[in-house]
Amino acid sequence: MRNRLLPKLVVSTWSLAMITMGGGFFGQLLGPDMAQAAELGADCVSCHEQPVASFKASYHAKIWQGKNDCQSCHEATDKHANDPSKQNVTSFNRGGGRSAEELSQKCLGCHKKSAHMALWDMGAHKKNDVTCTACHDIHSPRSTVKQPTVCFGCHKDKRSDANKMSHHPVIEGKVKCSDCHNTHGTQTKGMLTAESVTQLCYKCHTDKRGPFIWEHPPVAEDCTICHTPHGSRHETLLAEKVTNLCQNCHDNSSHHDDAYDADAGFGGSASSNRFRGRACLECHKAIHGTNNFRRALSR
Predict the structure, then answer these.
(1) CA 124 to CA 54: how far, in whole Å?
(2) FRET pair for 228, CA 20 to 30 Å: which of 59, 62, 132, 166?
């Protein structure tokens, strides 16, 4: 029994030594170069202690396993070590002297094969010189973008909308910007994740899809004809008050003749009954479409 176990013990001990000490070719074959990984950012840590520490915990460092250092993204740092300015190293910070195109190409050198980057050149971010690092922290342990905080940094009008009375639950964390938008580029206006606005809305609002016998044309054409998606001061994300909204199209027949303005809408001590309650929706309840044969859009 002892003679049979002895060869196995010797081989196991030798393999452990090769992995721990580097072991030349066999050490590289059996395990990562731990000495190189330990020296990650050694030339930069004296000045950039915090970035190097956070980078060691990042996805980049874990994937590269010590085979790439700071120079992989920032290029040669010899001149920067002697003259620590942003001009003699590739800096991703503002004032680094590098164009948005140049900085993005650094990232695309590895990430261009990703499916979600296929339409980067067509996206609004690329066309407006938004770099990858404007949204992503390359030293962060996690690569996810803090939504909507990062997005609101540029899209301040959408931040205002998201805080209005009626809004999608973005600030509550139930809906993310990336649920509707592909920030890396699409072929649609607004970089939507669907082929059209209606198809995007139908992903959640399936009850509005139909098909209906009596259809409301704006529903099939574009939901934003009536709704503003990021936030509104009117109920259910409507673009304006119900009566005014309906009269944008229904302005020349039956009881739609009179404009519901300050003159026709108010008389005496009370306002028009079409200004109160749900206005047009008091009768036309199924405004998105209905299968009721007796009255279109009634219920």
Answers:
(1) 31
(2) 132
Q: What angle do CA 149, 154, 159 make, to 5 degrees?
A: 55
Tokens of 236: 């259910």
Domains of the chain by residue range: 45-142, 205-290
95-110 pLDDT, tens per residue? 788 899 999 999 998 8
Is pTM beyond 0.85? Reply is no
What distances in angstroms separate CA 89 from CA 53, 58, 274, 295, one per listed residue?
20, 21, 67, 71
pLDDT in tens, 255-267: 655 666 666 555 5
